[in-house]
Specification:
mainly alpha; 3 helices
Length: about 100
């Protein structure tokens, strides 16, 4: 049962990561790309690591996966925010279809 749950989480994580990669290619500007890649890749990678924990169990590698999940949940949104703020401060333009820039 744990193997099935682990494989399902890994497949869901791979789908999330793939959608994040598509967002990097398809979205028009840096702000949209940051949003898509941060959410999808963060949740996708956490799902893959959690699926790995389900499969291998709670040994030293499983604990490392859990610690990596915690680290990723704290650092990825923070890094994304820092990148978006730096882009805003250096006047990186929004795409033409964007209607509102609440920071200006």
């Amino acid at each position: 049962m744990n193997n099935i749950a682990g494989i399902a989480l890994i497949i869901a994580g791979l789908i999330f990561d793939f959608i994040g990669c598509l967002g990097l290619v398809r979205l028009p500007d840096v702000y949209n790309r940051l949003q898509a890649s941060t959410k999808c890749v963060t949740f996708g990678t956490c799902a893959i690591l959690l699926g790995t924990v389900f499969i291998i169990g709670l040994n030293t590698a499983g604990v490392k996966c859990i610690l990596t999940i915690i680290f990723l949940l704290f650092t990825s949104p923070t890094a994304s925010h820092a990148l978006a703020r730096a882009c805003c401060k250096t006047d990186v333009k929004l795409c033409n279809k964007s209607l509102i820039n609440e920071y200006k």
